UniProtKB/TrEMBL annotation:
PANTHER family the record matches: 5-OXOPROLINASE SUBUNIT B
EC number: 3.5.2.9
SUPFAM superfamilies: Cyclophilin-like (SSF50891), PH0987 N-terminal domain-like (SSF160467)
Keywords: ATP-binding, Hydrolase, Nucleotide-binding
Full protein name: 5-oxoprolinase subunit PxpB
UniProt organism field: Metabacillus idriensis
Source superkingdom: Bacteria
Pfam families to which the protein is assigned, alphabetical: CT_C_D
């Protein structure tokens, strides 16, 4: 497994595993993240997976206790380099498949008509294409619990809106370029909104606040407005 190391400030190190967003790189990212998440040295504070990297945040004081004649970054980078030689023998867990119910169009998806017209499709065709695919969660970022999702068909790609909205309701499902995403909390944003899920993607009071995590596979399931209200009521 090829990789490069680089410092991020004085208490973090980036393991870069590729340059392109692709499945092989994603698998390597999950592989490395899973290992360090399950085999944490005393100095390791947190592991953060991204599209092509894994960032390790460490405690410089604890790291320096390993060898007081070396700098913390040198100690950590040498440990990572030696560990990476053995990772091909380690199996990481496969992601879950998560079904996300979505009520498309109407007041919950005000931009569905635009996405359809932009791609010379009917709204029903956009819904069918969007809900007929499997999507991979590459990383969580931008906002708490926000999944960066790959796998959307280019047939329903659409540009961001010209003037971002100041408030997008939590659960809104949007499209920007060739990506689709779900807003986990109310936040400003510029994606084309095509629907909304009644599920809560981010609940800070839970032990695992984010419903989704990197490596998960998502499928969207169309539901009616009445079903949306019923499921929404259960979430309260």
């Amino acid at each position: 497994m090829e990789f490069t190391l680089s410092p991020l400030g004085d208490a973090a190190i980036i393991i870069e595993l590729g340059k392109m967003i692709e499945n092989n790189t994603h698998e390597n990212v999950q592989h490395v993240f899973s290992y360090f998440d399950q085999h944490s040295p005393d100095w390791l504070i947190e592991c953060i997976p991204a599209f092509t990297t894994v960032t390790l945040i460490y405690d410089p004081i604890k790291a320096s206790r390993v060898n007081r004649d070396s700098y913390p970054y040198q100690i950590v980078s040498e440990y990572i380099s030696e560990t990476m030689k053995t990772l091909d023998k380690v199996q990481s867990e496969s992601g879950r498949t998560v079904l996300i119910p979505v009520c498309y169009g109407g007041e919950l998806g005000p931009d569905l008509e635009f996405v359809a017209e932009h791609n010379k499709l009917s709204p029903e065709e956009v819904i069918s294409i969007h809900s007929d695919s499997e999507y991979l969660v590459y990383m969580i970022g931008f906002a708490p619990g926000f999944p960066y999702i790959g796998g959307m068909s280019e047939k329903i790609a659409a540009p961001r809106i010209s003037s971002p909205r100041l408030k997008i309701p939590a659960g809104s499902v949007g499209i920007a370029g060739s990506q689709t995403g779900i807003y986990p909390i109310e936040t400003p944003g510029g994606w084309q909104l095509i629907g909304q899920t009644p599920l809560k993607l981010f609940q800070p009071e839970r032990k695992s606040p984010s419903l989704l995590k990197a490596g998960d596979v998502i499928r969207f399931k169309p539901i009616s407005y009445d079903q949306f209200l019923e499921e929404k009521e259960k979430m309260i």
